[in-house]
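Dear colleague,

Thank you for sharing your sequence with our group. We've completed the structure prediction you requested, and as agreed, I am returning the results in plain text so they can be pasted directly into your records. Please verify that the sequence below matches your submission; if there's any discrepancy, let me know and we will rerun it promptly.
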Amino acid sequence: MAKLKVSSVHRFVEAFRGEEIRIGVDVHKRSYSVGLLRPDGMVKDWICPADNHALVRTILSLPVRLGAVCYEAGPTGFGLAAGA
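Please find the predicted structure tokens below.
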């Protein structure tokens, strides 16, 4: 997985503006592995620092609807699940 450039994530979903995407997050102590699934089945994944607020801001800035958000259940994911 590559490091995140927010503009590349926006480009990835731009053609699907207003459509539903799904997000999966593998939560670790120092980093999050994030994956977006578009309606056409294509996936964009990246690794970002373990910063709940930054991840939520990035996701909410996307011009799409969130269909589902899944994260790895465990103690390092509780803060993210609580809504950052």
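Summary note from our side: The longest helix spans residues 52-60.

Kind regards,
the structure core
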